């Protein structure tokens, strides 16, 4: 007797195999139908989100996490616009990457194709479900979603609307599914027969837990312990504005900074100004001993602070004596997500961007740019923090694979071996 999750995964697999061979036009019509269905269900979705927000408030959710959970009319409108943006992107499926004559009449092609079925577990951020589904459909994949428990009603209303939209298209609504409990996730992890990729968006511990408990390939989207290093050659005005944006523009996002590293030769001038700007936005500051000598009214940062992703209006500050010291701090405590340097010294910027090992290494701009929409990918499934590709914001390209197609006319390998071996032509067509 299959478990509920197994039955769901089986249905998703069947629906996905049909979706995989749909034309670009049919997929784009489907994406438009999803956008329209979400618009039609707008009131239900916003109502469901209100219920989630009330429950989360009663449970004492932290303010930045509340903002992440909240789906107002503007956020929903932007998410629906994002669906249509994905529709406008080039179809990533069926692209011929290699077209080669191996010998006369023997032709090799490498062609992009969908992965199959994706299992995506994400935090309590309802619009993520919308972004993920649009990318999954455009890349020809079925998708099984599981959102954070605080977003249960919102995700249920969103997926209901999406399925409603799909019911008028060439795509079977079974291609998109929602799981709602942790127990179902544990079952999902065992379903390597039906699921081709698991993407866990969550803490390092959760991503590791998933990796340790499944044979399905895992694309980890883990912690963002992001740093901003203000170099001795920084432009102070730029440094202040970028620090404030990187911290407060969306503090619960994984690409917000948690630690500010400041070169000692600029610290006395920079720190009081940046502290005023950050404190005006209610950011709580913590500093190492040298920082506290300049900013006497802030708390002391300890070893734990360098390891912490606050996801909140809190920032740890450390003074360093060199670019190398900043790089080595990031090497020790960074999570390979997004790291930035503020400097007018091009050599320092190049050294930082060359040596820091992270998915994003930025110069003179905010870490908050780490985002699929801002990179021009239309949307993102999340931000991969693993070393192997896909790395950073994952868009359509991260959801496809390829296959080799070969066509001959009775060709056999024996012809190309032994004393009278024929040579391959290996001619790109
Ligand atoms: N790189 C990226 O793209 C992203 C990274 N993150 C990172 O995730 C971290 C925490 O985010 P947060 O919102 O608290 O997310 P959590 O790690 O608490 O939860 C994320 C999802 O994982 C599920 N989950 C967590 N633990 C388990 C478990 N043991 N078994 C089954 N399911 C589980 C949750 O389910 P349930 O809610 O039901 O418990 C939820 O659906 C932060 O470090 C953040 O930076 C977050 C989003 C994107
Ligand atoms: N790319 C997103 C942040 C990535 C993300 O999903 O973060 P999170 O808020 O932890 O869910 C953004 O810039 O808003």
Automatic annotation (TrEMBL):
This is Glutamate-5-semialdehyde dehydrogenase. Keywords: Oxidoreductase. It comes from Dolichospermum flos-aquae UHCC 0037. Its EC number is 1.2.1.41. It comes from the Bacteria. The lineage of its organism: Bacteria, Bacillati, Cyanobacteriota, Cyanophyceae, Nostocales. The keyword Oxidoreductase applies.
């Amino acid at each position: 007797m299959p478990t509920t999750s197994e039955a769901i995964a089986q249905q998703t697999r069947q629906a996905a195999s049909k979706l995989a061979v749909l034309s670009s036009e049919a997929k784009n019509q489907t994406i438009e139908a999803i956008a329209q269905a979400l618009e039609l269900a707008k009131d239900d979705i916003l109502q469901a989100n209100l219920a989630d927000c009330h429950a989360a408030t009663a449970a004492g959710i932290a303010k930045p996490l509340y903002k992440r959970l909240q789906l107002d009319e503007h956020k929903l409108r932007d998410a629906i616009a994002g669906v249509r943006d994905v529709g406008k992107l080039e179809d990533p499926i069926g692209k011929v990457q290699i077209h080669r004559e191996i010998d006369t009449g023997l032709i090799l092609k490498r062609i992009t194709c969908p992965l199959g079925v994706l299992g995506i577990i994400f935090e309590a951020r309802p619009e993520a479900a919308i972004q993920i589904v649009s990318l999954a459909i455009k890349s020809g994949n079925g998708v099984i979603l599981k959102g954070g428990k605080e977003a249960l009603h919102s995700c249920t209303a969103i997926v209901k609307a999406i399925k409603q939209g799909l019911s008028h298209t060439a795509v079977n609504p079974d291609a998109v599914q929602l799981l709602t409990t942790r127990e179902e996730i544990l079952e999902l992890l065992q379903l390597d027969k039906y699921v081709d990729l698991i993407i866990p968006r969550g803490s390092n511990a959760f991503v590791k837990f998933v990796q340790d408990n499944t044979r399905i390939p895992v694309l980890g989207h883990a912690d963002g312990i992001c740093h901003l290093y203000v170099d001795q050659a920084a432009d102070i005005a730029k440094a202040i504005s970028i620090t404030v944006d990187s911290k407060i523009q969306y503090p619960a996002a994984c690409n917000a900074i948690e630690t500010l590293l400041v070169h000692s030769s600029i610290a006395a001038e920079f720190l009081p100004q940046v502290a005023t700007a950050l404190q005006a936005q209610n950011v709580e500051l913590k500093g190492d001993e040298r920082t506290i000598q300049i900013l006497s009214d802030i708390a002391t940062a300890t070893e734990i602070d360098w390891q912490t992703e606050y996801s909140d209006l809190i920032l740890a500050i450390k003074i360093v004596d060199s670019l190398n010291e900043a790089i080595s701090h990031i090497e020790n405590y960074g999570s390979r997500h997004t790291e930035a340097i503020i400097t007018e010294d091009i050599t320092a910027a190049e050294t930082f961007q060359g040596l820091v090992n992270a998915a994003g290494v930025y110069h003179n701009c905010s870490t908050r740019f780490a985002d699929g929409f801002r990179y021009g990918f239309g949307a993102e499934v999340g931000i991969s923090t693993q070393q192997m590709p896909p790395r950073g914001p994952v868009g359509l390209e991260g959801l496809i694979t390829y296959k080799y197609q070969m066509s001959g006319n009775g060709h056999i390998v024996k012809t190309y071996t032994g004393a009278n071996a024929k040579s391959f032509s290996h001619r790109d067509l």
